[in-house]
Design a protein that fits this description.
The chain is an alpha+beta fold. 42% of the residues lie in helices and 13% in strands. The protein has a domain at 5-157. The structure holds adenosine monophosphate (AMP) and magnesium ion (MG).
């Protein structure tokens, strides 16, 4: 696999300190609390010294960014220092690599903390994601538009193989492509080795993982923000939390990223962009499927055509669970769609709506005290829904629909405090969202959109 990675040692940050430590994840990796507190641990994860037998690498990849092909991307600011329990341990923001192009290879602290918080939250909700082991403050500044404190994220992933890695391999040679595909199958889908055409099965498996993943994003109002092919894993984990954010009021057109001027990666476009990305993946697999290109294309297209039907099934399953429905027949699908129409036409907070619905059902609050207060079409909808809901499932919906999410204004405030050396807000946020389903008195502000209307929330690509 040397064709797609380069050996590269971190130069390290001597003045670094840990800002956030994920003790639970460290424990899963056999790193006990005493080690996590040690200087040796800090030195390893801030790139000062390498773990024994480490063979640090930066990976090459290509990718379609906002629809345009870039043949030379790669880990420009991340070094993989090894594996624990078959998981990649990567230092993101660690300094220059052979793929840095003109970049400094560093990260500012804000985006490091955002990725830590949001990826761990996704994990709490059982949404496949890379994880965050540590957030490190480098105590050095990075120069962006202004001087900002620098940070390193210690990221854990099933692997860092992206659709873009395949696009890169395809451009190298069929030999490189085949060895990447074999490696990926053995690492992530070993059961496919037994199938008749393992590369076609591999494609279908990745399609399935992506369809399931994106349906889960949609179910919690998550907007990834930069669904380029280099930010889509073949393991099906969410990766590269840059300008991501959660929707407050339900509006399918929601887009947060400052650079997404045409809404390519808006909330509602995520499923079709997933298909677009998988099409690029299919194109890079063509030489492996059949020796005749035409037959390859035909077989890959047949699989690709199943992605949206499969996505729709996942999507309605997610929303059925959220609404305590279980049949997924035409009437229930209509109930889900009409619910979303009510949210849209009345600009209702997406996350809060599901919690209020449950409270209305349980007579804890009245409609007038809920987010549905001014929604005229709600009463009729409620009757239809009430008639259909599954009494066994409705009891469980508060364990599916989070009360607390890392809301935009709250995360922004927490990051700003951290950057100014006050970590109390980010620690409080992490505590609240680590138990997102249990409502705690005193935390009401975490469950509501901002009371101050500051206009459209804008996020920036995290560099
Ligand atoms: P991302 O926006 O994090 O998905 O990054 C897109 C590409 O830009 C990847 O190839 C990154 O490695 C590269 N990149 C982002 N920030 C930097 C940086 N500060 N220095 C070097 N390369 C970077
Ligand atoms: Mg990326």
């Amino acid at each position: 696999m040397y064709e797609i990675c380069q050996k590269c040692s971190p130069s390290g940050f001597n003045k670094a300190e840990f800002l956030l430590k994920n003790f639970q994840l460290a424990k899963e990796f056999g790193l006990d609390a005493k080690f996590v507190e040690s200087k040796e641990c800090l030195d390893i994860f801030s790139g000062v010294s390498l773990p024994e037998n480490s063979n640090p690498i930066a990976q090459a990849y290509a990718g379609h960014q906002f629809g345009h092909y870039n043949s030379q991307l790669g880990d420009g600011r991340a070094i993989l220092i090894g594996e624990i329990n078959n998981k990649d341990i990567q230092l993101k923001g660690i300094g220059q690599t052979p793929f840095s192009r003109r970049g400094d290879g560093k990260s500012s602290l804000g985006p490091v903390l955002r990725e830590y918080v949001v990826s761990e939250f996704m994990h709490t909700l059982n949404i496949p994601t890379t994880r965050a082991l540590f957030a490190i403050k480098t105590n050095e500044n990075v120069i962006r538009e202004t001087k900002q404190p620098g940070g390193v994220l210690v990221r854990v992933a099933k692997s860092h193989i992206r659709i873009g890695t395949f696009e890169y391999a395809r451009a190298q040679s069929n030999k490189v492509l085949k060895s990447l595909a074999d490696y990926s199958i053995n690492r992530h889908y070993p059961e496919l080795n037994k199938t008749e055409n393992k590369y076609l099965s591999f494609f279908a498996a990745v399609c399935d993982k992506q369809a399931s993943l994106i349906s889960k994003w949609m179910s919690i109002g998550f907007v990834h923000g930069v669904m380029n092919t280099d930010n889509m894993t073949i393991s099906g984990e969410t990766i590269d939390y840059g300008p991501c954010a959660f929707m407050d009021d339900y509006d399918p057109k929601t887009v947060f990223s400052s650079i997404d001027h045409h809404g390519r990666y808006a909330y509602k476009n995520q499923p079709s962009i997933m298909v677009w990305n998988l099409t690029k993946f299919a194109e890079s697999l063509i030489p492996l499927i059949h020796e005749e290109t035409e037959k390859s294309v035909k077989q890959l297209t047949e699989v690709l055509q199943l992605v949206i039907p499969s996505y729709n099934e996942y999507f309605y399953k997610e929303f059925s669970r959220k609404l305590g429905l279980s049949k997924m027949d035409i009437e229930e699908i209509k109930i889900i769609e009409d619910y979303l129409k009510i949210l849209k036409s009345n600009s209702i907070d997406f996350t809060k709506s599901f919690r209020d619905l449950s409270k209305i059902y349980l007579s804890i609050i009245d409609v007038k005290e809920s987010v549905f207060l001014n929604a005229k079409d709600f009463t009729n909808w409620y009757k239809r829904w009430n008639h259909r809901l599954d009494p066994k499932i409705i009891k469980k919906i508060d364990g599916i629909n989070p009360s607390y999410i890392p809301r935009n204004h709250i995360i922004e405030n927490a990051l700003m405090h951290s950057i100014n050396n006050d970590d109390s807000k980010i620690r409080e946020l992490i505590k609240v969202i680590s138990q997102p389903f249990e409502e705690v008195s005193g935390y009401e502000d975490f469950a509501s959109p901002s009371k101050i209307n500051t206009g459209r929330y804008v996020t920036y690509c995290g560099t």
